[in-house]
Design goal:
Layout lengths: L1 H8 L9 E4 H4 L3 H11 L9 E4 L1 H16 L7 H7 L9 H6 L2
Antiparallel strand pairs: 1-2
Helix pairs in contact: 1-4
Length: 101
């Protein structure tokens, strides 16, 4: 939500209150690049151009990136816990359990 609100507050004309960002940085993500092109009307081929973005857009992008890393299926992250639901850890073989008695 913060990403879309920040994008709505951003502009392609120069504004001293907003942060200038090169268009090439926004084109790194297909989704963000497409939304930026639709909302701001910035030409995707012009990588030398810059747009001024609202700080809310930067906060929304950081939040989405953090959430994406959290959903990686690794260890104790949320993605790892979601993978453990359909594939629970295997129980120890009987030989290993009897040796520990």
């Amino acid at each position: 939500m913060a990403l879309l609100q920040g994008l709505a507050l951003s502009t392609s004309v120069s504004n001293p209150e907003l942060v200038p960002v090169p268009v090439a940085l926004l084109q790194g993500s297909l989704l963000l690049g497409g939304i930026t092109e639709l909302v701001l009307g910035v030409d995707a081929g012009n990588t030398a151009a810059s747009v001024t973005v609202h700080p809310m857009l930067i906060a929304g992008w950081v939040a989405l990136t953090t959430t994406a890393f959290n959903l990686l299926p690794v260890g104790r992250l949320d993605g790892g816990r979601m993978v453990q639901v359909p594939y629970p850890p295997c129980p120890l073989p009987l030989s290993v359990r009897s040796r520990n008695l």
